[in-house]
Amino acid sequence: MLEHLTKKFSSIIKGIRGETRITEENSAEILAEIRYALLEADVALPVVKTFIANIKERSLGNEVINSLTPGQTIVQIVNQELITLLSTDNDKKPFLQRQNSNEPQIILMAGLQGVGKTTTTGKIGLWISKKRKAKVLLASCDTYRPAAAEQLKILADSVNVDFFEHERTISEPIQIGETALHYAKKFLYDYLLIDTAGRLSLDEAMMSELKDLQNTLEPSETLFVVDSMQGQNALPVAAEFSKSVKISGVVLTKVDGDSRGGTLLSVHSVTGCPIRFVGNSEKLDGLELFDAKRFADRILGMGDILSLVEKAQESIETENSEKLALKLKSGKKFNLNDYRKQLSQVNKLGGIASILNYLPSAIRDKAQNLNTTNLEKNVKKQDAIISSMTKKERLAPEIIKAQRKKRIALGSGSTIPEVNQLLNQFNTMQSMLRQGGGIGKNIMGGITNFKSANTKDKRKNRKQKNRLKKRRKK
C-alpha cells in the first residue's frame, strides 16, 4: 500500500534530518524533491502547487530558523501539511455513531460502475455490525445490472447481516428505497445501507435518480466510491459528482494495489469531502476507517503501530490466548496443536507482508533482505508438516524419531531437515514459555529460520548431485 510514495518520502526525510541549517538554497532542493515525488505519484498538479507553497512559506519562517533542529522541524511541517491535505473539519464530527432513535441511519452508496461499490457496501455493513454492534440491513436499488441485487445478497450472507428482498412487482429505485426504509423501521434496524446503480460514465439520468433517492430517503451519509487505481482519471469524475450531488464522504477502493497514492492525496482537495474508508484488501474485512494522521505517518515512513495493535486486538482470539495461559499455569504441556494456533494468528493479521506495512521504514529496510513471499510459504509449510503428524505426535512431539520424521516429511512434501527445524523451534518456544518468555518473537524466529534451513538443505542436495556427476565421469 503506497509503497512507491513511502519509499520516496522516506529517502527525502533521511536527507532533511541531516541538515543542521536550512537556507533558501537547500530548502529549494528539498521542495523540488518533494514536488517530483508527488508528481511521480500522480497527485493532481493544483494540489502539488498548494502543498509545496505551504511548506515553502513555513520552512523559511521563524518556526524553522529559530529551531535547534531545523531538519526535524521541516519533517514536522511536511507531516502537518500532509495531515491538512488529507483531512477536513468534518473528520472531527462523529461518523456512523449509533443514535438513541427508532429511526435507522441511512447510508447511500454511489459511484461509477466497476469501482467496487457493491462489494464496499457489504464491507461497510460488516464494519458497522462489528464496530458499532448494530443491526444492519442491506438493500439494492440497482435495477439496471441484473446480478447486482443477487451479488449484494451473497455478500450480506457472507458478512452475516440482513438483506432486503423486494417484491418483483416493484421495479423503480425510489419505490425499492421507500419499501426498504419502511421494513428497516418496522424491524428496528439501526442502519440501512442502500446500493445504487453505477454507470460507465456520468449522465443526467444517473444524477437525477440519485437526487430523487436523496430527497426521498434523506440519508445521513452519501458515500462516493472511487477506484484509487484509476489515478488522476478518477478526479474529474469525483469533482463533477460532488457538484451535482451532495456527498458527505469518499471511500477509496483497491488502495492495497495502488503503490503511488495520487488519488488518495488528491481526492479530498478536489471534492472537498473527507475520506471515510479505504479498502486495503480483497477480503470482506479489508476495510479501514480513514485516519489522516496515521496515513500521513505511513506515507513519511514513520509507520502506524496503533493501527497494527488495533488490528491485532480484533484478529487475535482472546479466548484462545486465555485458554493457553490457563493451560500453562495448570502445568500442562505446550504442544504442537498450540504452536499451530499461534501460527494461524500471523495469517489472521494479513500475513507477514501486511504486518511490515504498518512498521516504520527503518525496520522495513532491515527486513528488505527477507523475501516475504518465501516467509508466507514457510508458514504454510510448517502448517503442512504439523498436519502430516498423527494426533499422538502433535500431543507428544518427543516421540517423533527418525522413521516418523521420514514419514512426516514425505506426507507434507518437505524434507527431514525442515521437520527437524520445526521441532527445534517448537522445543525452544516450549522452554521459553516455561521461563515466562514470549510467543511472538519465537514464532517469527521460526518462520525466518526456516529460510536458512531450506537453503542449507538445497546446498546439501547440490553437493550430493555434483559428487555423483564426478563419479559417473570417472
Task: Describe the SSE topology.
Elements lengths: L2 H15 L6 H17 L4 H15 L2 H4 L4 H17 L18 E6 L6 H15 L4 E5 L7 H11 L3 E2 L9 H14 L4 E5 L8 H14 L3 E7 L6 H11 L4 E5 L8 H10 L3 E5 L7 E3 L2 H8 L5 H11 L2 H12 L6 H13 L2 H7 L3 H6 L5 H16 L3 H5 L6 H11 L3 H19 L5 H34 L1
Parallel strand pairs: 1-4, 1-5, 2-3, 2-4, 5-6, 6-7
Antiparallel strand pairs: 7-8
Structure characterization notes:
This protein has helices at 3-17, 24-40, 45-59, 62-65, 70-86, 117-131, 148-158, 173-186, 204-217, 234-244, 262-271, 292-299, 305-315, 318-329, 336-348, 351-357, 361-366, 372-387, 391-395, 402-412, 416-434, 440-473; strands at residues 105-110, 136-140, 162-163, 191-195, 221-227, 249-253, 275-279, 287-289. α1 packs antiparallel against α2, α6 (117-131) runs parallel beside α7 (148-158) and α20 crosses α21 (416-434). It starts with a helix and ends with a helix. The chain has three domains: 3-86, Up-down Bundle (Four Helix Bundle (Hemerythrin (Met), subunit A)), CATH 1.20.120.140; 93-302, 3-Layer(aba) Sandwich (Rossmann fold); 310-463, Signal recognition particle, SRP54 subunit, M-domain (434 Repressor (Amino-terminal Domain)). It is built from 22 helices and eight strands. α10 links the parallel β5 and β6. It has an eight-stranded mixed β-sheet with strand order 3-2-4-1-5-6-7-8, sandwiched between helices. By secondary structure, the protein is α/β, with parallel strands linked by helices.
